[in-house]
Fold this protein.
Amino acid sequence: MIVDPPPVEPIDRSREAAECAEMMVTSEPWLTFRLTREMARAAVDDQGREVHVIRDAHGVAGFVVIDMRGLLRGYISILCVRADRRGQGIGSALLDWAEARILRESPNVFICVSSFNPDARRLYERRGFALVGTLPELLMAGHDELLLRKTTGTWRDFLRTSA
């Protein structure tokens, strides 16, 4: 039986930012990047980014961070699911929510995936994301970041139809 995940809601940064940061530093790809708790906390605390969570009885089950600023408006910068909740639809629910949120304001959804994370890349490609570029050694020597995009069309068409 498939159970619908709980709703996606805005983070309560004062109560949940540390929990999200801890989830990151104990998960890939952030383990490989040797991300510190301070770095993870700064990413979650960035007031310019939107952070949304799915909660369960044990706290934050997963979270997504999106950036609606700049050239890559609609960038999913973090998608993280607690280890014991992986494979239960939490990540897909967060991704569905993020895509719907972004596509209200942009024809493009962007996400990066690390070159050493082929499972995540396959997931994103199955969901309609396509490789648009490689960022060699962006975060760490020896590992590239792959920029993926899912699009509904050009900015010109988007602006014309949303006006």
Summary: The longest helix spans residues 90-103.
